[in-house]
Amino acid sequence: MSKEPCKEPDVASVLEIEETASLSDKSLDAEYKRKERRVLRKIEIEETASLSDKSLDVEYKRKERRVLRKIDMRILSLTAIAYMLNHIDRTNLANARIMNTDVPGASMVEQLKLHGDRFGHIITAYYAAYIIFELPSNFLLKCFGPAAHLSRIIIGWGIVTTCSAAVQSYEGMILNRIALAIAESGFFPGVIYYYTFYYNDDERAFRIALFVASSSLSGAFSGLLATACSYLNGVGHPALSGWRWLNIVEGIPTILLGILVYFLLPDYPETAKFLTPEEREIAVRRLGASASKATNEPFKWSSILNVLKSWDFYFFALLWQFLAMGTSAFSFFAPTIINNLDPNFEGVRAQLLSIPPSFLAFVLTITSGYLSDKARNRPAFIMAGIVLVSGGYLILAVDKKVVGPRLLAVFMLALANMSIIPLAAYRLSTQKLGGKNSDSTSVAFTSSATVALANVSGLTAPAILDSGLRFDYKCYIFLAFFIVAAVQTLFAWWWFGSGVEALPGPEAKEKSLC
Hints:
Elements: H1 11-90, H2 92-96, H3 108-111, H4 118-134, H5 137-144, H6 146-163, H7 170-184, H8 187-195, H9 201-230, H10 242-264, H11 277-285, H12 301-308, H13 311-339, H14 348-353, H15 355-375, H16 378-398, H17 403-429, H18 440-454, H19 457-465, H20 471-496, H21 506-510
Helix pairs in contact: 1-6, 1-9, 1-10, 1-11, 4-7, 4-18, 4-19, 5-6, 6-7, 6-8, 6-10, 8-18, 9-10, 9-15, 9-17, 12-18, 13-17, 13-18, 13-19, 13-20, 15-17, 16-17, 16-20
């Protein structure tokens, strides 16, 4: 069988095949180039959009910071000044008690016959009324609006303070203090609740610290005012005692501030007239879903019952009561404690010596609030304050002769007392009592009820200080209260955690709290 010879490929055919392949490669290359250009254009568009989004985000953050500054300037400044005057008017009896004691018949103690434990009875009457009328305070705030409610409180206690100058007897002073308690009850828990309408959880601790710090600054101003008014003793027609002038000088500015608060303090972010429409929208949008809002239902009794059934409600009320023991004792009796440190510390000198601790307490309170916001750990700072206060009472109990250490102890009490309260107040304002169903009603009730229950310390502290016990025994009693508070704080630290938002038990394992 013969084989056919192999034919050589035609040159023309080879060239045709190569040309076809070349055209195909060029077509594929052109298609690839087109796809590459599309991808590059898409990347460029996405990068441009991303830069635009970042630019918009930076601009929004800038506007948000501006809104927050405006809120601080309006709300924080007004409420802080009001609380400073509140603390001055509430504790002015501590200064009035030792005014003009060197002038026969000129002191408040002699004129009102406040001998023995009568001074403590006046403080007790004040707190008894304060506790009762503080409970419904935040309900009234929600009903009438923050501006009307808070200004009514400020004007009311200003009028009562001014009228204190006309008191002529021990019984009259008791009635006056009861009226003062009724007038000003609800201011502190009302402001704490009010802040939840404007500030997020991680912003409130520092703001509450600034708010409370104004009360420690009041210690410096009240000492200066008492010193100045002591020189007005016998001035006027008819001649008024120095302690009466003190009440007049402190009461009138409070009334004027209350009038300003009514016109300047906004109710809610949605209706704040000092903000532009865009700023109002930002003020509302920046708050989390858990924030209190003006549009919430007025009050739900089911939420209150949930709070009352929560064990942590009573736990934190008791904790704050133990912490407030030392604060109440020092606030009302600081000039007297200083007066008793040394026979040379009398009258004007005791008033002036109460100024430096108060001023330093102002600085420390702001610092602790700021650092606790940064560290997001409230219990650690509360524990530090407890250690300082406990050390102060221990020094006063042990050292009975050396003035230097005893003055140091007074500084420790003043510095730590004021730094503890804002952190405890912040803790309550974020406490999710009633569990996940916690709402603005829970926050409102918690703020007022826990503060009211904690103010039982205002009944017990004066009773202890005015008792017949030796001074060192009194200090040991207050030291014991702070030891119990330390144990409670450590338990709360373990159970609730140390973050911002407060949820109980197992939920704290997932999200850091306190």
